[in-house]
Task: structure prediction
Amino acid sequence: MRLISIDKVHFGHVLYGNIFNMEGQCLFTAGLKLESHVLDRLVAMKFKHLLISDAPDMGVDAKPLISEGLRLAALKMMHKIFRSLRGNTDVATAPDLDMKAVFETCNAMVDEIAMSQRGRVIDIPTVKSPEDLGA
Result:
Protein backbone atom coordinates (compact mmCIF):
# COMPACT_ATOMS: atom_id res chain seq x y z
CA MET A 1 0.00 0.00 0.00
CA ARG A 2 1.14 3.51 -0.76
CA LEU A 3 -0.26 6.95 -0.05
CA ILE A 4 0.14 8.98 -3.23
CA SER A 5 -0.92 12.38 -4.44
CA ILE A 6 -4.11 12.16 -6.47
CA ASP A 7 -2.36 13.81 -9.41
CA LYS A 8 0.06 10.82 -9.48
CA VAL A 9 -2.75 8.23 -9.57
CA HIS A 10 -3.21 6.63 -12.97
CA PHE A 11 -5.81 4.40 -14.49
CA GLY A 12 -5.33 0.86 -13.33
CA HIS A 13 -4.21 1.70 -9.80
CA VAL A 14 -6.27 -0.21 -7.26
CA LEU A 15 -7.91 1.50 -4.28
CA TYR A 16 -6.54 0.09 -1.01
CA GLY A 17 -9.40 0.90 1.37
CA ASN A 18 -13.03 1.95 1.29
CA ILE A 19 -13.84 5.64 0.83
CA PHE A 20 -16.81 7.07 2.73
CA ASN A 21 -18.64 10.36 2.57
CA MET A 22 -19.28 12.48 5.66
CA GLU A 23 -22.56 10.68 6.34
CA GLY A 24 -20.76 7.33 6.49
CA GLN A 25 -21.98 6.01 3.15
CA CYS A 26 -19.45 3.94 1.22
CA LEU A 27 -18.70 5.70 -2.06
CA PHE A 28 -15.91 3.48 -3.36
CA THR A 29 -14.87 0.03 -2.15
CA ALA A 30 -11.41 -1.36 -1.54
CA GLY A 31 -10.06 -3.24 -4.56
CA LEU A 32 -11.74 -0.92 -7.06
CA LYS A 33 -9.67 -0.47 -10.20
CA LEU A 34 -9.46 3.30 -10.63
CA GLU A 35 -10.84 4.61 -13.92
CA SER A 36 -11.19 8.14 -15.25
CA HIS A 37 -14.76 8.73 -14.03
CA VAL A 38 -13.80 7.62 -10.49
CA LEU A 39 -10.70 9.81 -10.43
CA ASP A 40 -12.69 12.77 -11.80
CA ARG A 41 -15.23 12.36 -9.00
CA LEU A 42 -12.52 12.11 -6.31
CA VAL A 43 -10.83 15.24 -7.65
CA ALA A 44 -14.20 17.05 -7.67
CA MET A 45 -14.64 15.95 -4.03
CA LYS A 46 -11.27 17.64 -3.29
CA PHE A 47 -9.33 14.48 -2.39
CA LYS A 48 -5.61 15.24 -2.32
CA HIS A 49 -4.22 11.73 -1.66
CA LEU A 50 -5.27 8.11 -2.05
CA LEU A 51 -4.11 4.83 -0.59
CA ILE A 52 -3.45 2.44 -3.43
CA SER A 53 -2.52 -1.23 -3.46
CA ASP A 54 0.71 -2.45 -4.95
CA ALA A 55 1.48 -5.95 -6.22
CA PRO A 56 3.44 -6.79 -3.02
CA ASP A 57 0.27 -6.03 -1.01
CA MET A 58 -1.50 -9.07 -2.40
CA GLY A 59 -2.17 -11.44 0.47
CA VAL A 60 -1.10 -8.87 3.08
CA ASP A 61 -3.86 -7.70 5.36
CA ALA A 62 -2.71 -4.51 7.07
CA LYS A 63 -4.74 -4.01 10.22
CA PRO A 64 -5.99 -0.47 10.68
CA LEU A 65 -5.45 1.22 14.04
CA ILE A 66 -9.18 1.65 14.60
CA SER A 67 -12.15 -0.38 13.39
CA GLU A 68 -14.12 0.78 10.39
CA GLY A 69 -17.21 1.22 12.55
CA LEU A 70 -15.43 3.53 14.98
CA ARG A 71 -13.79 5.36 12.10
CA LEU A 72 -17.23 6.02 10.60
CA ALA A 73 -18.61 7.13 13.97
CA ALA A 74 -15.72 9.59 14.34
CA LEU A 75 -16.23 10.83 10.78
CA LYS A 76 -19.93 11.46 11.44
CA MET A 77 -19.04 13.19 14.71
CA MET A 78 -16.58 15.50 12.94
CA HIS A 79 -19.16 16.32 10.28
CA LYS A 80 -21.71 17.16 12.98
CA ILE A 81 -19.17 19.37 14.79
CA PHE A 82 -18.34 21.26 11.61
CA ARG A 83 -22.03 21.76 10.86
CA SER A 84 -22.69 22.94 14.42
CA LEU A 85 -19.86 25.44 14.46
CA ARG A 86 -20.31 26.70 10.88
CA GLY A 87 -17.11 28.70 10.89
CA ASN A 88 -17.53 29.83 14.50
CA THR A 89 -14.82 28.71 16.93
CA ASP A 90 -16.83 29.30 20.10
CA VAL A 91 -18.19 25.93 21.27
CA ALA A 92 -20.59 27.72 23.63
CA THR A 93 -22.52 29.04 20.61
CA ALA A 94 -23.16 25.49 19.36
CA PRO A 95 -25.83 24.23 21.79
CA ASP A 96 -26.50 21.03 19.83
CA LEU A 97 -22.86 19.98 20.18
CA ASP A 98 -22.61 17.05 22.60
CA MET A 99 -19.13 17.33 24.11
CA LYS A 100 -19.68 14.16 26.15
CA ALA A 101 -20.18 12.22 22.90
CA VAL A 102 -17.03 13.82 21.46
CA PHE A 103 -14.97 12.72 24.48
CA GLU A 104 -16.49 9.22 24.36
CA THR A 105 -15.60 8.85 20.68
CA CYS A 106 -12.05 10.12 21.29
CA ASN A 107 -11.63 7.77 24.26
CA ALA A 108 -12.90 4.83 22.20
CA MET A 109 -10.31 5.62 19.52
CA VAL A 110 -7.50 5.84 22.08
CA ASP A 111 -8.64 2.56 23.66
CA GLU A 112 -8.79 0.73 20.31
CA ILE A 113 -5.35 1.97 19.32
CA ALA A 114 -3.88 1.00 22.68
CA MET A 115 -5.49 -2.46 22.56
CA SER A 116 -4.36 -3.11 18.99
CA GLN A 117 -0.78 -2.30 19.93
CA ARG A 118 -0.47 -4.76 22.84
CA GLY A 119 3.08 -5.86 23.34
CA ARG A 120 4.43 -2.62 21.93
CA VAL A 121 5.43 0.44 23.88
CA ILE A 122 3.11 3.25 22.97
CA ASP A 123 2.90 6.71 24.44
CA ILE A 124 -0.73 7.78 24.50
CA PRO A 125 -1.77 10.21 27.18
CA THR A 126 -4.88 9.00 28.96
CA VAL A 127 -7.56 11.65 28.79
CA LYS A 128 -10.87 10.36 30.08
CA SER A 129 -12.80 13.52 30.94
CA PRO A 130 -12.62 17.30 30.61
CA GLU A 131 -11.48 17.45 34.24
CA ASP A 132 -8.33 15.51 33.27
CA LEU A 133 -7.46 18.42 30.99
CA GLY A 134 -7.83 20.93 33.78
CA ALA A 135 -10.97 22.30 32.11
